[in-house]
Each structure stands twice: as C-alpha cells, then as structure tokens.
Write a structure and sequence with these properties.
Layout (H helix, E strand, L loop, with lengths): L1 H22 L6 H26 L9 H23 L4 H10 L1 H18 L3 H7 L6 H15 L5 H33 L1
C-alpha cells in the first residue's frame, strides 16, 4: 500500500501537467510551464528522499528510498529533456552557448550528471561498489537549489519558505551525521 501511495503521489505532477497542456489547453508558455512542474517535482522528490532517514521513527520508508530517488531523477530527466528537445530543438550550438552564458544552466547540468551517476549506480551490484559516492546527492541538491534560485526573475514568499525548508533539512541531516560520528568515535575510544 505504501508503494502505491508513493507512486500515486510521485506521478500526480506529470498527470496534472498533461491535463493542463492537452485537455484544458490553458497554459500560455508550455515550455516554461514544463520547466516549472518538472523542476519543482524533481527538487521536492529528491529532498524528500534525503529526509526519509529523518522521519523513519514516525514513517519508515527506508526500503523505498532508492525508488523515490529514482522518481526524482525521472523528473530531472524530463526537465533536461524539455531544455534539449523543446527549448533548444536539439541545437547543440545553442545548448553550449546557453550553458556557458547562463551559470544557472551549467549548475543544473552538473547536478543532473551527479544524479545520472547515482541513477546508474543504484543497482545492488553497483551500489555496493559506489555507495560512498551517493553522498554527492547533497552537493546535487545544493546546486539544484542555486540553479532554481538563479533561474527566478524574482522570489515569492513560497520560494522563501522553500529555501527555509531546505536549510532546515540540511541542518538536521548535518546533526544526524554528527550524531553518527560521535557514536562511532565513542565506540572506538571504549
């Protein structure tokens, strides 16, 4: 039942996007709208994937963490695909020019390639070998947050609330890591 709820929740943004684009047909700038829905969905799902260990006492979703992370990658892939296919029309020169001229794009690209590496190495065999590199998700999330903030023309109250939430998640994750480190040091010194 948990898995069904996770997938239902994770795919609701894409269903909403498709309904707005093809049924209601009420979107003025479809490319920008796709950027917004896919980017926000990727970011929210990826941040949720790192908070799972913080809430495991209340709701244990640890066995679904990889799937949730891959769902976040799915939206990041759609976000990048929107840039390459609809915005750039597969024009490599345009893609390179935009990436060099707009720092928020190359930060997003770096974050995407970190997520791509994590997606590729998330199988059981490869995860055993590369799991220590999966901590780069934190770097990717920081880059995504900067990418998102720089892409905005102006920030709204919702975006400020989002940034406060991000800072809180990072703070609690650091506290969690500090606690693990202290426990490890105490075990070594006994």
């Amino acid at each position: 039942m948990k898995r069904f709820f996770i997938y239902l929740t994770a795919f609701s943004p894409i269903v909403y996007l498709l309904i707005r684009l093809f049924i209601f047909d009420d979107v003025n700038d479809p490319i920008k709208y796709i950027y917004t829905i896919t980017g926000v969905s990727a970011t929210v799902i990826l941040f949720f994937s790192i908070t799972i260990s913080l809430i495991k006492e209340k709701i244990n979703l640890m066995k679904y963490r990889k799937e949730i992370g891959l769902l976040g990658f799915f939206y990041a892939f759609l976000h990048l695909t929107n840039f390459v296919v609809f915005d750039a029309s597969f024009d490599i020169e345009f893609i390179l020019k935009e990436t060099v001229e707009k720092p928020f794009i190359y930060l997003g690209m770096i974050a995407f390639f970190i997520l791509l590496f994590m997606g590729i190495t998330s199988s059981k065999q490869l995860f055993r070998k590369y799991n220590k590199y999966h901590k780069f998700v934190y770097l990717a999330l920081i880059l995504i947050t900067i990418h998102w903030t720089m892409a905005q023309k102006s920030l709204t109250i919702i975006q400020y609330i989002y940034m406060i939430f991000i800072i809180m998640v990072i703070y609690y994750k650091l506290k969690q890591q500090e606690l693990r480190y202290n426990i490890f040091i105490n075990l070594l010194t006994k």
